[in-house]
Structures are given as C-alpha cells and as structure tokens.
Amino acid sequence: MDKLLKSISYIFHPLLMPIAGVAFYFAKSPRFIPFDIISAKLISLFILTVILPILLYLLLKITGRVNSIRLETARQRVLPLMLNCIILLLVIKKITTPNQSIEIYFFFLGILISNMACLCLAMFGFKASIHMIGVNGLAMYFIALSIHYSININGTLALMALIIGAVATSRLHYKAHNFIELVIGAFIGFIPQLILVPYWL
Q1: What is the mean pLDDT of residues 167-173?
Q2: 160 alpha-carbon distance from chain centroid
C-alpha cells in the first residue's frame, strides 16, 4: 500500500498535468490537426513544462534555495512558483496562442491563474497542495471539453474521480498536507478552469 501511494504521487505529479490535458485535447478534438503539428506542440510543451522546471529545480537545489523536491515549506515554494509563472507566460505567448487553439490557450491561462493563486498563498505562509491543484484543474478541463465537443467521457471522469481521491489519500498518508490544504488546492485548481469556460465554450 505504501509503495502504491508513493507511485501515485509520482505518476500524477503536477508537472505532468498540463501535457496530459493537451494530449487529451488532441485525442478528442474532432478537428483535423496534422500529426507533425501535434508532435511539435507536445514536444515543445514537454520541454517547457516538464524538462525545464526539473532543470530549474536542480539549479535551485545546487544553490541551496530548496532542500527537496517536496518543497516542504511555503517559503521554499515562492521562487519555484515564480519561475513557473514565467514559463507559463512563455507557453501562452509562444505556443498556445488563441488563434491556433483557443481550448489549449484558456487551459494554460487557467493553469497560470492557479499557479499565481498558489504563489500568493505561499507568500502568506500557506502551503496549498499543488498535486490537488493539478488533478482538479485537469478534471475540470476534461468536463469542459466533453461539453464543448458533446462527447461522452464518463469513463474518463470516473477515473479522474478515483485519481483525485488517490492523490488526496497519498498526500495525507505522507503528511505532506493537511485536509484544509488539500481542499484549498482542489478549489485553486478547479475554479479558474470553471471561470474561463464561458470564454471558449
């Protein structure tokens, strides 16, 4: 059980949620999108939203700005979240422009808002669960896409409900967060995506 919960924390790491959302969009979109465009988008997003944050984390760890990848204190989260805001702005400006794909553009705009909300809370010493932000924001995006394209993804949504529960259980089991931090994280992930839905649905 302990190994399973640890695996859940790594498999559903917040860094992987944006690329999962984009992959889901390309899989479900009824529009014809050339494969070379899809692969170019996914590769560039993977580099910017996964590889680059990992490299920046290693740099912060080497310079002593963070102690571990868990970012156990709110203070240690401030600089990584600031850097992630810059990365997300770069993604929104250069890769997910609204004239190319408005669904992905607003998805990342919602992620940026969630990231900024988490940053503001960290500055005031509150450590919202970034894992819960990621999975709940992704779940809301899936719901919006299913409505937008009138597709049945009940199986996916049921799986996401299980994943959210498993992630919450994992964070509580390892005492990474308390219940309030999980709930606040869930709202920070869910609400921005919900608020932005009318702008592209």
Answers
A1: 86
A2: 14
